Amino acid sequence: MKNYLFPIYLVTALLLVYVTAILANLNTAIILFAFSISPALVIWMVYKVLTADVEVNSTFEEKWYEDVQ
Question: Which residues cross the membrane (predicted)?
């Protein structure tokens, strides 16, 4: 797995657990804990994605809309 994909998977999994906990009426402490750490996790995810060493070979002008032939 690529290094920059791990934060995406982790934060998405936490979001699914958070929504499921709300819908299942789980303990309020668990829901509030997940809510309180979510901003830090989102900032970490954005930082890891933006600083990932990924080389882009196409420009915006070349592929600004993928459906155009």
Answer: 6-24, 29-47
- Check: CB of residue 45 under 8 Å from CB of residue 14: no
User: Which residues are within 8 A (CB) of 11 and not within 5 positions of it... i.e. 6 or more apart?
Assistant: 38, 41, 42, 44, 45
For the chain, the domain total comes to: 1
Token pair 């750490």 in the structure block, residue: 37
Domain of residue 5, residue span:
1-69
pLDDT one digit per residue (tens) for the chain, 69 residues:
578 889 999 999 999 999 999 999 999 999 999 999 999 999 999 999 999 888 878 787 777 776 655
